[in-house]
Amino acid sequence: MSMEVIAACAAALLALGLGAAGWAQDKGAEDPALAPPPVLLHPGPEYADRARIFQGIPGIERAANGRLWATWYGGGPTEGPWNYVMLVTSGDDGATWSDVKFVIDPPGDVRAFDPCLWHDPTGRLWLFWAQGYSHWDGRSGVWTIMTEESDREDANWSPPRRLCDGIMMNKPTVLSTGEWLLPAAIWSLKPNVIEESYAHDISAATGSYVVCSTDQGKTFRPLGKSDIEGRRCDEHMVIEKRDGTLWMLARTDYGIGESFSTDRGVTWSAGQPSKIAHIKTARFFIRRLKSDKLLLVKHHPPTMEGRSHLTAYLSDDDGATWYGGLVIDERGGVSYPDGVEAPDGTIYLIYDYSRTGDKQILMATFTESDVAKGECVSEKARRRVVVNQATGKPPA
């Protein structure tokens, strides 16, 4: 390993608050944002659907026995210190969904937000979320809990655990060589907090990181980062191409930016605009399917302005070209897709609609054939399945 790579790794360790052992020092007693948050197994009426006036940014996973899990965050009038993370489940393929199973709600001005669900290769279900002060405190942190019982409605979960600084809201990638890569980012935004003492200036560490585990989640260490021009709220994802190259795609103020790594994530190429046409500053979803095709879900409105026309595409050539075009939901106000594929090829996609209006978390199901033909032709296709709808009204 070259001295440049060693230096890059050392800088990344310091940037993400990880020491030689790979963990941030526990400072919860003096900094509530670093303290494990309460997991409320029996949330009270203040967390009921009728109490929420804002919600969105969902994630979805499917257990081996078909049980579905969904997460999102809400609470308060919009993004801010009132936010908390929720989890629900379905045992009938999404026909009906449970009430909120539990809530992760840090006390005071610390919020939980941007959750992500992921089954690892051993079958364990991980719930990740970000935790920090106010809207963005300049540091935040990636937290997780995990269960080995995702086939059960009343699964037992591990205690909360902080992995690193930053925000991770998209699923990890498992490389062909076995490593797990978590896409965690230090946003390039200045802190936006309600008290100046909450702000943390680690802007020198800003970047779209990959955080690696080589021991099935026992420990994590940062490998490297990209700094794609135009990124702010990165929401990046990583795809391993067939030749072993890692392809990072990130949300930018012009659409989608990209960067590449040929050393398993240690170093990354200079960022550049992707050829994928997308609206500015909006999340998209990309994942490799069991067929080895790539699935891409993004906005494709006629004017290329605004969060509407959430549309799915396929690629047979590692993202060089795309075809199909299944419109999942054409309405304005649909956003933040996340998905998972079942063994039979059914794709489950979750997204939000009208975060402060209808306040819906919705699911669609479809197959590759539906995407390729640009219309729902399979018996698996469903649209606008309601996972949850909040009905709270803002105070007069």
Please outline what is shown here:
The protein is mainly beta and 396 residues long. The protein has helices at residues 3-15, 368-373, and strands at 39-40, 55-62, 68-74, 84-90, 102-104, 110-119, 125-133, 142-147, 161-164, 173-174, 180-186, 207-213, 221-226, 237-240, 246-251, 256-261, 272-273, 285-288, 294-299, 310-315, 323-329, 334-341, 347-353, 360-366, 382-389. The chain has one domain (3-389): Neuraminidase (6 Propeller), CATH 2.120.10.
Distance between the termini: 62 Å
- CATH topological fold name: Neuraminidase
Outline: globular
Order of helices and strands: HEEEEEEEEEEEEEEEEEEEEEEEEHE
Count of runs of 4 or more consecutive helical residues: 2
Strand order of the largest sheet: 1-5-4-3-2
CATH architecture: 6 Propeller
Name the average pLDDT. Answer: 93
How many discrete structural domains? 1
The CATH class: Mainly Beta
Sequence stretches where pLDDT stays below 50 over 5 or more residues: 1-26
**Structural class per helix/strand content?**
mainly beta
Radius of gyration: 20 Å
Measured by DSSP, the beta-strand proportion falls in 35-45%
Largest sheet report: 5 strands, antiparallel
Q: What is the percent of helical residues?
A: under 10%
Number of strands: 25
